[in-house]
Amino acid sequence: MEALFKKHKMLISQINTGIVREMMHSVNWEKQLVAIRGSRGVGKTTLIRQYIKQNYGISAGEALYCVMDSMYFANHTLLELAEQFHLMGGTHLFLDEVHRYPTWSREIKEIIDLYPNMKITFTGSSLIQILNADADLSRRVLSYTMKGLSFREYLQFYKGIHIPVYSLEDILTNYDDICAETNKLCHPQPLFEEYLRVGYFPFYDGDEEEYYSRIENVIDFIVGQELPQFCGVDPANTRKVKALIQFLADSVPYELNIAKLSARLELNKNTVLSYINSLGRAELLMLLYSDSKTITRLQKPDKIYLHDPNMFYALGFGEKIGTIRECFLINQLSVNHTVEYGKEQGDFIIDGNITIEVGGPDKTFVQVANIPNSYIFADRIELPVGKKLPLWMAGLVY
Q1: What is the pLDDT of residue 133?
Q2: Which among 122, 231, 369, 386 is most buried, taking Cβ atoms within 10 Å?
Q3: Of 263, 227, 45, nearest to 128 (Cα)?
Q4: 358 with 326: CB under 8 angstroms?
Q5: What is the pTM for the complete model shown?
Q6: How far apart are CA 165 and CA 368, in angstroms?
């Protein structure tokens, strides 16, 4: 235990609390059991360390932070840790990367049964299945999903520009005022173009090559370790999964021809669809359907995108600006909204009743002229022109 307390103090003392994510204020940290899930690299660890430092200081006592692949757990169980921590008067356990501990769900359930006053917050991969874990935690856990930085958060973190969160409804009704207020604070277009290249993950340090290398490392880790662990992907097929990602990056927005794709990868159709669905759950791909209410387990998506714009640049496809624009809009709006493929009714349908077209500065209303509640989000325009809004405004919704 002493070694864990020392490690807690070292890790918490190192964290900077100068800027925190908006999510910090939306998590109900005092619930008995809180889960924060998300893809590798989006900032889960930083978030909980910042919360601990702000609320409990740097020394372990009432609160204890543990990384679940710590050497401590080679000879001790999580249940033993909780017992000792309880005897020492501890009340708040923070367990980072919980999925690295094989029996996490069973032991957490036993801990909260034995010590009803103990509160546990844990982080884990976006792939962990809380509802289908070894022990049923679904009735007790309050689960949050953490995403990468929005354009608004990027401006705050890297440029010191503070813009409030606006709902999509605010943006679609008060776009002139919001755009005017934002333009008083900064010139958003060049900053937006920078965000598309390097803004989604909160680990950019000014070196684009290093940033893209870290994104590739994230992809390698998810494909090589998390997909086999959580999704049953055959480790022998991980190279084919990476080839699938590269093919889709070069082809997206890809209208899926499953027969051709399975022949290309030398895998059967169901296996390819299963891998694509797993890549969607792992937040490496975004899968769009024309009717999200009736999705079945192995239903073919209508369109496929990489998960975020930065992935295009990291994988060498930064020239696909039209696709990158669409990817940005889906990535930002899907955090709080349902985004469906529009087929003949514009590019995308938001929440079943808002039609959106995405394009460059010359994009016209021809395709949505007779569709009510329709808008264009256009890149490289300074100000709204009627219902044609600057694309970067979609990045203010979280």
Answers
A1: 58
A2: 122
A3: 227
A4: yes
A5: 0.92
A6: 28
At 296, the pLDDT band (50, 70, 90 cuts) reads low
What pLDDT does residue 146 have?
A: 97
Q: Which sequence spans correspond to the domains of the chain? A: 2-146, 152-396
3-state secondary structure 132-175: CCCCCCCCCCEEEEECCCCHHHHHHHHHCCCCCCCCHHHHHHCH
For the segment(s) 2-146, the CATH number from 3.40.190.10, 3.30.70.560, 3.40.50.300, 3.40.50.150 is 3.40.50.300
Contact between 314 and 209 under an 8 Å Cβ cutoff? The reply is no
Alpha-carbon gap, residue 344 to 41, rounded angstroms: 36
For the chain, report the end-to-end CA distance as a whole number of angstroms. 39
Spatial distance between the Cα atoms of 120 and 93, rounded to a whole number of angstroms: 5
DSSP code per residue over 175-215: HHHHHHHHHHH--HHHHHHHHHHH-SSTT--S-HHHHHHHH
Structure token digits, residue 205: 């340090």
Query: pLDDT band for position 132 (50/70/90)?
Result: low
Q: What is the mean pLDDT of the chain?
A: 94
